[in-house]
Design a protein that fits this description.
The protein is mainly alpha-helical. The protein is built from six helices and two strands. A hairpin with a 2-residue loop joins strand 1 and strand 2.
């Protein structure tokens, strides 16, 4: 390790600090967005369902978010109660249930993705669009390599 990295936060701490900053921005946005019944933890449901519009099983969602099935069930219950998701019969297995976004859930998904794009634009103004794009590409490469290593 070079001496330049002996002081200051290490990469994991920098990622945590960036995540905390984003969460603080997200909480401020939620207060005025019309989605005050959503909490950051609900992204464990919303994000994977955004990428799986036909729905996913509760166990799949829990595994994807690395939380227990019971914790995922509580998140889904809250979102279902507030009209963001619905449970439907799995067409591939009548004994199973899928969770999918409702129209309200999809509207929230579009709104939160626009919020994220706005934050990325703010960050790009601070450090440059090229650096933000490089950061995105690096983090995506890490994410896919972690997924490949898990399989």
């Amino acid at each position: 390790m070079s001496r330049t990295h002996d002081r200051g936060p290490m990469l994991p701490a920098l990622l945590r600090l960036a995540s905390q900053t984003m969460t603080e921005e997200y909480l401020r946005w939620l207060e005025t967005s019309g989605y005050s019944d959503i909490q950051p933890a609900h992204s464990a449901v919303i994000q994977p369902l955004w990428d799986q519009p036909d729905g996913a099983r509760l166990t799949t969602l829990a595994r994807h978010s690395r939380i227990t099935k019971q914790s995922m069930s509580a998140l889904v219950d809250h979102l279902e109660e507030h009209g963001y998701v619905e449970r439907i019969a799995d067409p591939a297995d009548a004994r199973a249930t899928l969770v999918r976004l409702t129209a309200r859930g999809r509207a929230f998904g579009r709104a939160i993705r626009q919020f994220a794009r706005d934050v990325e634009a703010q960050w790009a103004q601070r450090v440059g669009a090229e650096r933000i794009e490089e950061l995105r590409a690096t983090l995506e490469l890490l994410r896919t390599s972690w997924l490949e290593a898990r399989d």
